[in-house]
Amino acid sequence: MANVRKRVIIKGRVQGIWFRATTQEHALASGLTGWVKNTWDGDVEAVFEGEEESVEKVVKWCHRGPPGAFVKEVQVTTEEYTGEFSTFSIEYSRW
Question: For the whole model, what pTM was predicted?
Fold first, then answer.
């Protein structure tokens, strides 16, 4: 199966409820690499790289998120696979 890269922006009540940590757990369990972070405007943004089926599975999970999340919208963009990551990390923005 081919490797793919997806950038995801999750909107709604998604900060302060362990969304990033739970996303990291799902991504690592699925063998994905990339990152997840909070954005200054209250969204969560993530980049997933890995096997297409695994990426799609985690992107689908992002539509509901962890308990306590209220996901209003998920924007998914397909980007060129780069293989630049060695793991899946939580990034911290400096606003």
Answer: 0.95
